[in-house]
Amino acid sequence: MNKNISAVSALEVHDLTVAFDRKPVLWNIDLEIPQGKLVGIIGPNGAGKSTLIKSVMGLLPLSSGYCKIFDEKIDDVRHRISYVPQRESVDWDFPVSVLDVVMMGRYGKLGLLKRPRKADLDVAMDCLRKVGMESFANRQIAQLSGGQQQRTFLARALAQQADIYFMDEPFAGVDAATEKAIINLLRTMTAANKTVIVVHHDLQSVSSYFDWVILLNTRLVANGPTTSTFTQDKLQETYGGKLTLLSDVGDLIRRENFPNREEKVL
Ligand SMILES: Nc1ncnc2c1ncn2[C@@H]1O[C@H](COP(=O)(O)OP(=O)(O)O)[C@@H](O)[C@H]1O
Ligand SMILES: [Mg+2]
């Protein structure tokens, strides 16, 4: 039982196959992710990126295989996991306030039948502050912009105080300022040894955003540190012919050290 805790992988996926109507959308995936990384899941539309996250979270039936988080079964570590679904998959007309949504992040910590305490409210407000949304606490979520909705989602995830976060396209439809704010926040999280796994489809920003990438197209094309894994060959293999639609592949793989590693939150 003398496991070196920090040496335990954040995520392990073994022999994972997932099918809809007998058609596999993930095929025999094996991968391992160390702790404390900012990880991008990259691949074309329909590659199975969302399905991979949902499968790991135990939200879909698996045809074969299993996943572990921190070397435990998912159900045994749920309190350490946070999931941010795609923004479009949520009913934003639901009549709740921004603060209500963030407080939902506290329910897992509260246990059944316990009422939120002042301390929970303080955590929720602190999380809203971190995403620059404290002045919107009482706003109905139907009255938010796309960027504000995403920030609210992120605040809810932060309020869970998890150790591993799965986020499905957190930058989709958000403004540039929000994107920068989110990426800076994610960096401060990984600096505190949280693991953050993000579905992402903008190839231009992969090299500057992520420490680690998972290249996926039904099968796993590659999994590893961005510098050695996000290569022209692997990208070609992931996107196939679709990549020729993009202007210049070489341009996507900028190898400079990006200077924007600010520690500042927002
Ligand atoms: N609930 C579902 N029922 C049937 N097919 C699905 C379902 N969810 C996803 N799919 C199919 O599985 C494939 C992978 O989907 P998805 O994981 O959402 O891809 P990505 O997130 O990479 O765009 C797609 O072909 C999609 O149409
Ligand atoms: Mg998706």
TrEMBL record:
For whether the record's keyword set contains Transport, the answer is yes
* UniProt entry keywords in alphabetical sequence: ATP-binding, Nucleotide-binding, Transport
Kindly give the InterPro entries that the UniProt entry links to this protein.
Answer: AAA+_ATPase, ABC_transporter-like_ATP-bd, Metal_Ion_Import_ABC, P-loop_NTPase
Look up keyword Transmembrane helix and say if it applies: no
What the entry lists under SMART domains is as follows: AAA
Mind telling me which residue stretches traverse the membrane in this protein?
none
Q: Which residues form a coiled coil?
A: none
Pfam short name (any one): ABC_tran
Q: What is this protein called?
A: Metal ABC transporter ATP-binding protein
Classify the source by domain of life: Bacteria
Q: Which intervals hold domain ABC transporter?
A: 11-243
Which organism is this protein's natural source? Chryseotalea sanaruensis
Give the family per the record: Belongs to the ABC transporter superfamily.
**Which GO terms label this protein's molecular function in UniProt?**
ATP binding; ATP hydrolysis activity
